[in-house]
Specification:
The structure is a single chain. The protein has 132 residues and is α/β, with parallel strands linked by helices. 33% of the residues lie in helices and 29% in strands. It has a single domain, classed as Rossmann fold, CATH 3.40.50. Strands 1, 2, 3, 4, 5 and 6 form a 6-stranded mixed β-sheet that branches. Helix 3 links the parallel strand 5 and strand 6. The longest helix has 14 residues. This is Flavodoxin domain-containing protein. InterPro entries: Flavodoxin_dom, Flavoprotein-like_sf.
Length: 132
């Protein structure tokens, strides 16, 4: 079974998670929702806030169990050029979790943007095709 979890303060990462979920036929849920007992692929979404990932995502990524989750595919958003992928990947690999090399990070999003552009949706479609 695959799952999607995300943390979003401004709604952008949630919108991205829902678009990924629509492509994969999965329901995107916040990191506060527990995972199923076994997860083949966890799509995990984070964002950059003032040059760092949020403390809630740091805590979540630090507790992902490699016995429960076989592989994590990262995605995220930011208003600038920074990406959350390296920081989250580091926390996951420190736990022994396998992180897929492919990921998706959308840059230049304004807070509370409730819709992805056609170009961004094309990136989502390409990402979901390569990640399965």
């Amino acid at each position: 079974m695959d799952a999607i979890r995300y943390f979003s303060r401004t709604g952008n990462t949630k919108v991205l998670a829902e678009a990924i979920g629509a492509d994969l036929g999965l329901e995107a849920k916040a990191i506060t929702e527990p995972l199923p007992d076994e997860v083949d692929t966890l799509y995990l979404g984070a964002a950059i806030y003032m040059t760092s990932i949020d403390k809630h995502m740091k805590a979540y990524a630090s507790k992902v169990d490699p016995k429960q989750v076989k592989r994590v595919v990262l995605f995220g958003t930011s208003g600038g050029v920074m990406s959350s992928e390296k920081a989250v990947a580091k926390l996951l690999t420190e736990q022994g979790v396998t992180v897929a090399p492919e990921g998706l990070h959308l840059h230049g999003l304004v807070p509370k943007h409730d819709k992805l552009s056609d170009e961004q949706l094309e990136k989502v479609h390409a990402f979901t095709k390569q990640s399965v």
